[in-house]
Every structure is written in C-alpha cells, then in structure tokens.
Specification:
The complex is a heterodimer of chains A (556) and B (457). Chain A is 26% helix and 32% strand. Chain A is an alpha+beta fold and 556 residues long. Chain A folds into four domains: 1-84 and 404-443, Urease, subunit C, domain 1, CATH 2.30.40.10; 87-97 and 110-183; 196-313 and 328-403, Metal-dependent hydrolases (TIM Barrel), CATH 3.20.20; 446-553, Lipocalin (Beta Barrel), CATH 2.40.128.120. In chain A, helix 4 packs parallel to helix 7 (256-269). The longest helix of chain A has 27 residues, at 196-222. Chain B has helices at residues 2-17, 113-118, 169-178, 185-214, 227-236, 249-261, 279-285, 309-315, 333-342, 348-353, 357-363, 426-430, 445-452; strands at 24-32, 38-47, 50-55, 65-68, 73-76, 78-83, 122-127, 135-143, 161-166, 240-246, 267-271, 288-291, 320-322, 380-383, 394-399, 402-406. The longest helix of chain B is centred in the middle third of the chain and has 30 residues, at 185-214. The chains are: A alpha+beta (556), B alpha/beta (457). At the A-B interface, helix 4, helix 7 and helix 9 of A face helix 13 of B.
Chain lengths: 556, 457
C-alpha cells in the first residue's frame, strides 16, 4: 500500500517535471551551422561557410566566421542552406469555421445579411489562428517559414496576415496583420449575390460606395460643423486601406477566366491587385503585365498521366485501331498537352519577365518538391524557382528587409537540405523559423515489406485522429479478380463511397475515394501498412491536411 | 494525323488573329444584300474587316485572299437576338430586380457552341441574362470570334447597351417559391414600376446634388450610391434597350403602358408568342419583337401561339426577328427564317431580314451589321445553296473579314482549352448531349433543390 502510494507520487513528479521541461525556454537561441553550402539568394553562393543565428536573427554569414561559445553547433557537412520559403496564399493554421448544417434560406434571399452573402471584409485572420494546427508543421516541413494566410468565407472573407510557421501563440505567429484584403469570385449559396455576375456587380457597388463614404468622412473630418454625421460601416471601412493603395486586394484566381475577370474589376476600379493561386495564367501574361498586378502561381499541378494512358500513338502490335481507339488517343494527346501547359506556366512567366511567387492554397506540402522539379523540367530555371520561393515573394509582400535571403540582419528563417534542394533525392533536414529549429527525421519509408502476404478482404473498423477529434469509419474490401474493390463509410458520412486505385503491394496498401456532399466533394487518399489483422498509416483528406489512421479487421 | 496537324494550324491561326481584321475578296457569288436586293455574279471586297466594295469584276488587290464563290450564295452573317451561349452565368435570380449585374462579366470564349453557331452562318448573338427575375441583368452582344482567348475580345465594340426584363410565369414562379414579390402578374408590374420610381428619385437626387456642388463653398453629403439604381436611371435616360421576355398579350400591353408612363421608348419584346394579338399596338408604340418560328406549348402561358406570328407582326409594321434561345437552333436559324415563307408567304428578303437586319435593329447595331453594304462590318455567311432552301448548307463564315469557319477545314476537336483532369471516356462522349431547350432558367437549380428538400415551406 505504502509502496504503491510512493510509486504514484513518483509518477506524478516525473510527469510534472516532464511537462515543466516542455515549457522551459531553450538553453540558448544561438546556433552555428558550419561547413555548409550557403545559397544566400539566387545566384549568390558561398561554398562551405558558416551561418550564425542569434535570438531569431541571422548574425553572421560566410567563411571563417567566429562561432559564439554559447552556440549549438550543427555540423551540416556538405549540406545546403537557403532562406526559408515564403508562401503567398494559404489557410495554414487558420481555424475553419464550423459548417452550419441545415442552414435555411433567409426570408428574403435577395437581401441577405452581409455575413450570409459572404461579405465580411472586416474579419481579421489573426483572430482565427491556431498555432498548434498540424498544417503549420506540415508546411514548415516542406521548407516554408512564412505564409500569407487568409480567413475562410465567401466573396470577401476578410484581411490576411503574414505569419511565421512556428510559434506558441497566435500573436507570436503574426509578422504583419492586414497584409491584404482577401477576395474570391465565390457566390453565396441560394442568396444574392449567387453567381459570378452577381459577385462582380456587388464588388463594384461596394467599392464605389467605399470610395464615396471615405471621401465624405474626410470632408466631415476637415470641418464637422453643419454636416450630417457619416455613419460608420464595417464592410466599407475595410476597403479604405485598399483605396489608399496601402494594401492590395489579394484575389484568388485559379482559372484563366477568373484571372481575366479579376483584371476587369481592377481596370474598372483601379485598386492595387495581387493575383494568387493562379493555375492557368499563361495566356493572360501580357494582360497581367500591363495591369501591374503582382502574381502568386499555384504550386499545385494536375497529376501526370499514367504511363498506360500516355501511349505515344505507337502500338506495339500491328492490329488496326478502331475509330474509338484513334479518337481516344487524340484526346489523350490533347490532355497530355494541357497538363504540360500547366507544368510550364512558371517557365512562361519567367520568360516573360514577370516577377512571381508561389502560393500553397491547394498544393499539398508533400508535393512541393516534386512539383517544383516538374516545373524546372518544363523550363523554369532553378534560380527562378528559388527566387519564386524566397526573394520574389519577400518583395511582393514588402518584407525583403527581413526575409528572403541568407544575409546578416534578416530573420533567422532557413531551410537546410542534404543535397542541392532541387535535385531529385534532396531531403530537407532542418528548418529554422524565427531562430527556432525543427529537425526532420528521415522517415523510414521502407517499413512495408514487399514480399509480405496479407489478406485484406473483409470489413475493417478504422479510427482517424484529426484536430476535430476522432472519426470512426468502416472499410469493406472484396476480391475482384487479381485486385480488390471496396467501399468506405464513416461517422461523418454513413453512406458508403466506392474505393478507387486500390493497390496492395506486399503489405503496403493504398487507395483513394471521393466523399461527395451535394455539389461539394473531398478527395481522400489513404496509405497504410498492414500487419495481420490491423493496419497503421496516414490519410490525406482534401485540403484539410493529413492525419494518422488505424484499422482493425473484423473477425469473420 | 492529318486532321490533328490541321487542327493545330487552324487553332494557331485563330489564336494569332485575336482582335485582328481580315482582308478578303469574295468573288462571283449570288450576293443577298437583304437591304439592297440580290446581285448575281457579284464580288464583295472586305478590307481590314470592313466591306469596301460590292460590284462585278473587282480586281483583287495584291496579296488579297480570294474566295471563289461562284455558284455559292453570299449573305450577311446571321444575327441571333436571343441566345445564352458563351456564358458561365445566366441568372442572378436571387432578387426580383438585379439590373446591376452584367453577363459581360461571365463571357466564356472557350465554349464550343460559338464555333457551332459559326458553322450555321451565325456571326453575332445577343448573350442574354435569363428570365428568372422581373428586371434581370444587362446583356452583351458578342461577335463569334471563336479562337480568341479573352471574353473581352468577343464583345462587339460599340454595341448598344441592352437589359433583360421578364414577365409571366418565370419571375412569378421565382417569387412564389421564395415567398417574395412578385407572385402574380400584377406583382411583376408593381416591382417594375417601383424600380423605375426609385430610379427616377435616384436620378433626381443626384442631379440635385451635382448641381448644388457647383455652387461655391458647397458642403454636403452625396446621395447613397447604388449600381442598381444607377442602371435603372440609365434605362430611364434611354441609354439601354429593354429586351423583355414575354408571352401573353395582356402583359405585353402592360409593359408598354409602364414604359409610356416613364417615357421609355426603346423596347424589344422577346418570345412575344401572343404578339400577333397586339401587333398594331406594338407598331404604334415603336416596340420591336423577337420570336420563335414555331415553338410553343412548353408551359401554360405559351399555348396560345401560331407559326404565323412573325409574318403577322411583320405585316403590321413591327420590326421582327426570329431567335434561337438555344445552342442547337442557333446553328440553323436560316431554317427558322424559312418557315415564315411557309407560314405567311414572306419574301426572301423579308424572311432573311428576320435573322439579319431586323435583329441588328433590335440590338442597336444596324449601322454596323445585318446587311451587305459598303461601310458595314465584313461579317459574311457563304452557303452552297439559297439559305432559305432546305438544301442550303453554310460553307464559310467570316467575322470582320476573317474566316472563322470553313467546312473544308473543320477539325473534329475544336476545343481551345482542355481540362487536364478530364476523364476520357469514349462511350460517354458519344452519348448524345442533351441540350436544355430553354436556358432561361439556368443557374436556378438551387430553387429546385430547395423545393425538393422541402426547406421552403
């Protein structure tokens, strides 16, 4: 009895001391990265030098730099260090508002409240940040140190902020609030403005009203006597810094037609503009150039066609092809050509001499490296790619005095890779954000055994851990010839969805499915390692991020 | 393979042309001018997009492309006064009154329907807002310059401003579903009158403010800005032509009365199925009518109709056109025009006017297009037979003097942009694509959902 009480005390003390240790400040905030190839900026390189960081600032860069005695020394032998990457648009670390289910249409759909219409430009994203959100860690591990993040919402969700991808509180994350007024050509469902024509008309109406009310406010401020008091308006006031050309409108414009429509609005109203998440902009380059808008190109790319889809028109056998086969080949050829245009977009902007950065709104952090390599293979120079990750966004966001290069005086934002970053096998080993180090363990990807024999047919119960809590689900696999078919259902969506691309190699199992809710759909990708009647792995759920998943097979 | 090479050549050529104008000599055809009679064995010279000469035996200026039209029929490019092709959004039907919206913001130059319309000799269409609400959005007259990659370049520069109004079942149905005005034909009249009255007040308030601003030392608050009322004010000032979706004679009379009360003169009635009942009244008002040749009974208010409608209207002195309101009919409007000869014995020129000069008048572009005359745009359709004959097939279509369709060079895949994520599924592609005949209610699917899910009690 006494013994066990002591034991409890000990455990308690131990756990207390452990948690206390977590909260302790680091012993030192000084680091020296030695014997490292320093790519200070595109085209500026120091072989085998040292970078010293102190209290979140780069203090020395070069050869023969004195290492402060208190420094933690990282022997980055023959590794490569770059400035931490900067993302022009994402919702990293931004709390997604709870979806209102069964939202009834208002009594008069033609005159909804601004909130219901998606008009909330007064919202400030700093109040919707969660520093513990996994998306922050995910993006940081892809090499990013700074992100321009925006709130969720409709046509005018609110203002964005520049945040660091490391910090314990929302305030610690923020470098700059109200960095831009964020906008989308997104209509409100079932109420005014519902369509793109409604959204653009409402935009013009709001903007011109804002200009008028701002002018009247200054008239009133100059001499209030005898004048009717201007009524405050939270929606219109949010436009004032834009009208003053102090901040740009940050407009999401993925498709070519969206780019053109946003430019039409800009030309009508003359606001400073940043186009972001541009995926299909190559035909609009002259127009973008003429408009003077800043650009962030999407780091998301359409998937490459699978090999068997890509047959280069030559069949191995001499069998005459049917008309349908010929037609299919021609359509596939055009599709491949379309994909190559997307991949070559960045190169086209480089060639046209347009400065651009990248945005991560749709891209998955794990795809960044591969997508950059595809863009480079399509003609983007490595220097231009690096500029688009570092110096260009720093300039476009007005933070080149603090970020974008490895120079003394800048924020200690660094990414260190074991090989030149753009080479195929390069892996990121360290990321520094604001002087705080993240060390990346090289993951044992070879955990699965290609020769293992497992049987997945049957019903599996799954649990997925996400910030929203635990989701339970059910998977059913059925043998179908040499492969499998299956369905997935969960506590979120009891109706089963069919599984696609089920691949079982040894005990490595991967598959996909699409959850659809009315007109919205979310792509889910799962890859797990099966051990007997259980599996462990990861699931990536649309743009929500990737979460650990576990499963157990129901006994027959 | 040959076709593919051809395709890229053609696409390349189209892309390069953008806003360009062409120079071409169309030689030796039967020229149907529509306004100046039919000229046998005559040449049409187009220079930099404009018709500069119509005569026999014109010598081709050096380097000019010559199209041999001997044995062919040369007519002005067909104009469709009511269409919804090339639009990504048709109805902002959430409010009874939305004149501030403009379909020009939703032009989609990649819609292959534009090319298909060219294949039917149609060079201009009136891209209209839908009929879900009483005062819908502003419409855009577009030239079918298929190949341009920017909607701005489809807009017909200098075309008159037009706006869509709608009477009858479509706007009242919307009102009843949402439990808002208008729910009856009386309600439609009321919301239109109310909008006009507010527009008038708005205009007066701004006139007063602008005048006061001129006085020295003036300080005061401007009236509230409203793009909606600004647009209504432009209608009242006569700067925008009303194109009103209408079927029944009583409501056609109603809108004429409302317009009379507010001094509005430029009105075109669309569909106008009961126009034949009020043809003299329309003529007296100076209103025009754009109708279907022989299409009706698709809803209750469209039962009382006749294929003689167009002829009766025309014979009563109403400027009348025949329209498609469909990506299918737009490809053979010449057949539709031909029906006025079967039902009403119109002359060739009268019948062709229904799809050319009359439509041009309704869109306020008759000084530019709608007939083959010197000084007009080089928009031309060339047929291998008389366009009003069932055997006539369009061969070449020119817009601004540039060949935008050539039956000889007509590749299978005319898409300008390809979705990199498309699923290539031949059986599905070959499944006949069903076109919804009336696009007027597009973008209103959510109304159906609401009804289905019973949210709107």
């Amino acid at each position: 009895m006494r013994n066990s009480a002591c034991w409890t005390c000990l455990l308690l003390a131990l756990s207390l001391s452990l948690s206390a240790q977590d909260d302790l400040p680091p012993v030192t905030r000084t680091y020296a990265i030695t014997h490292v190839n320093i790519v200070q900026a595109p085209g500026r390189k120091i072989d085998m030098g040292t970078v010293v960081l102190k209290d979140g600032v780069i203090t020395a860069v070069g050869k023969g730099v004195a290492i402060p005695p208190e420094a933690i020394v990282i022997k980055a032998d023959s590794m490569y260090v770059y400035a931490g990457f900067i993302d022009g648009l994402s919702r990293t670390g931004v709390i997604r508002p709870k979806e209102e289910t069964n939202r009834e249409r208002p009594k008069d759909p033609g005159n909804p409240t601004p909130e219901r219409a998606g008009i909330t430009p007064q919202v400030d994203v700093r109040y919707a940040l969660n520093p513990a959100d996994k998306s922050i860690e995910d993006l940081r591990q892809a090499g990013f140190a700074i992100s321009q993040v925006v709130p969720y919402g409709g046509m005018l969700p609110g203002s964005g902020a520049l945040i660091l991808l490391s910090g314990k509180s929302a305030d610690q994350l923020v470098i700059q609030t109200k960095s831009a007024l964020y906008a989308e050509l997104t209509g409100a469902s079932g109420v005014y403005p519902n369509t793109v024509i409604g959204v653009m008309a409402k935009w013009r109406d709001l903007y011109r009203n804002a200009v008028q009310s701002k002018n009247y406010e200054s008239l009133y401020a100059s001499n209030r006597s005898g004048l009717e008091r201007p009524v405050t308006d939270r929606n219109l006031e949010a436009f004032y810094p834009v009208i003053d050309q102090k901040i740009p409108v940050l407009f999401k414009a993925e498709k070519l037609l969206e780019v053109q429509r946003v430019l039409t609005l800009k030309n009508d109203l003359k606001f400073p503009l940043t186009l972001a998440e541009v995926k299909e902009g190559w035909h609009a380059i002259p127009k973008i150039k003429a408009s003077g808008a800043s650009v962030f190109l999407s780091l998301d790319l359409p998937e490459e066609m699978k090999k068997d889809e890509k047959k280069d028109g030559k069949k191995k056998d001499d069998k005459p092809r049917t008309a349908a086969e010929t037609e299919k080949e021609q359509l596939e050829k055009r599709r491949a050509e379309a994909i190559s245009h997307y991949t070559a977009q960045a190169a086209a902007f480089q060639k046209a001499g347009v400065r651009f950065g990248f945005s991560m709104l749709n891209a998955k952090p794990k795809d960044v490296h591969a997508n950059l390599r595809r863009m480079i293979a399509a003609g983007l120079s490595e220097d231009a790619a690096l500029a688009a990750l570092t110096t260009s966004p720093a300039q476009l966001l007005g933070i080149s005095d603090r970020a974008g290069t490895v120079d003394p005086g800048k924020m200690a934002n660094l990414v260190i890779s074991d090989k030149p970053f753009f080479s195929e096998k390069a892996k990121i080993r360290y990321v520094f954000v604001d002087g705080a180090m993240t060390k990346l363990e090289i993951k044992e990807t070879k955990k699965s055994d290609p020769n293992a024999k497992v049987e997945i047919e049957g019903t599996w119960n799954t649990t997925t851990q996400s910030p929203q809590g635990t989701t339970t689900g059910k998977l059913v696999f059925k043998k179908d010839g040499s492969g499998y078919t299956g369905t997935a259902s969960s506590s979120m969506s009891p109706d089963p969805f069919p599984l696609k691309d089920i691949v079982l190699e040894g005990n490595a199992l991967s598959f996909k499915y699409t959850m659809s809710f009315g007109s919205r759909s979310i792509d889910v990708e799962i890859s797990v390692t099966v051990e007997g009647d259980s599996f462990k792995g990861n699931t990536s759920v649309g743009s929500f991020g990737s979460f650990p998943v576990e499963g157990t097979k129901n006994p027959k | 393979m040959k076709k593919i090479i051809l395709l890229f050549c053609l696409l390349g050529a189209l892309r390069g042309q953008a806003q360009d104008k062409g120079t071409v000599l169309i030689k030796g055809g039967t020229v149907l001018t529509v306004t100046k009679g039919t000229l046998e064995n005559t040449d049409v010279l187009i220079k930099d997009g404009k018709i500069t000469q119509i005569a026999k035996g014109i010598a081709a200026p050096a380097g000019t492309r010559v199209i041999d039209a001997s044995g062919l029929f040369v007519m002005p490019g067909i104009i469709d006064a009511h269409s919804h092709i090339a639009l990504d959004a048709i109805n902002e039907g959430t409010n009874a009154i939305t004149p501030e919206v403009h379909v020009a913001d939703a032009i989609n130059p990649f819609e292959v329907d534009i090319y298909r319309a060219l294949a039917g000799g149609c060079t201009i269409s009136h891209a209209m807002h839908g009929s879900a609400n009483s005062i819908g959005g502003q419409c855009q007259t577009i030239k079918h310059r298929y190949g341009v990659l920017d909607g701005e370049q489809l807009k017909m520069e200098g075309a008159a401003r037009t706006i869509k109004f709608a009477l009858g079942e479509n706007p009242t149905g919307h009102g009843r579903r949402d439990g808002v005005q208008p729910q009856t034909r009386m309600g439609v009249e009321f919301v239109i009158r109310q909008a006009f009255a507010e527009g008038k007040e708005y205009l007066e308030a701004w006139d007063k403010y602008n005048k006061a601003k001129l006085t020295k030392g003036f300080r005061g608050a401007p009236p509230a800005y409203s793009l909606r009322l600004e647009t209504i004010a432009d209608i009242l000032k006569g700067n925008i032509i009303i194109h009103c979706h209408s079927y029944r004679a009583d409501e056609i009379n109603m809108l004429m009365n409302v317009c009379r009360d507010f001094g509005i003169k430029r009105v075109v009635f669309q569909h106008t199925n009961e126009g034949f009942k009020v043809a003299p009244e329309l003529a007296k008002f100076g209103a025009m009518a754009s109708v279907f040749a022989d299409w009706w009974a698709y809803k209750l208010e469209v039962y009382y109709s006749t294929a003689y409608n167009a002829a009766i209207l025309a014979r009563n002195g109403v400027v009348t056109s025949i329209n498609s309101d469909s990506p299918d009919l737009i490809r053979h409007l010449y057949h539709e025009a031909g029906k006025t000869q079967k039902y009403g014995n119109l002359s060739d020129d009268e019948a062709l006017a229904m799809i050319t000069i009359n439509a041009a008048k309704q869109l306020g572009i008759e000084s530019r297009v709608g007939s083959l005359e010197v000084g007009k745009d080089g928009d031309v359709a060339i047929f291998n037979g008389h366009p009003l004959s069932i055997y006539g097939i369009p061969q070449i279509t020119l817009v601004d003097g540039l060949v935008r369709f050539d039956r000889e060079k007509d590749p299978a895949d005319m898409r300008l942009l390809v979705d990199p994520k498309e699923t290539i599924d031949i059986p599905t592609i070959h499944k006949a694509t069903t076109h919804n005949h009336e696009n007027c209610m597009q973008n209103m699917e959510w109304l159906l959902n609401v009804k289905m899910f019973g949210l709107n009690r």
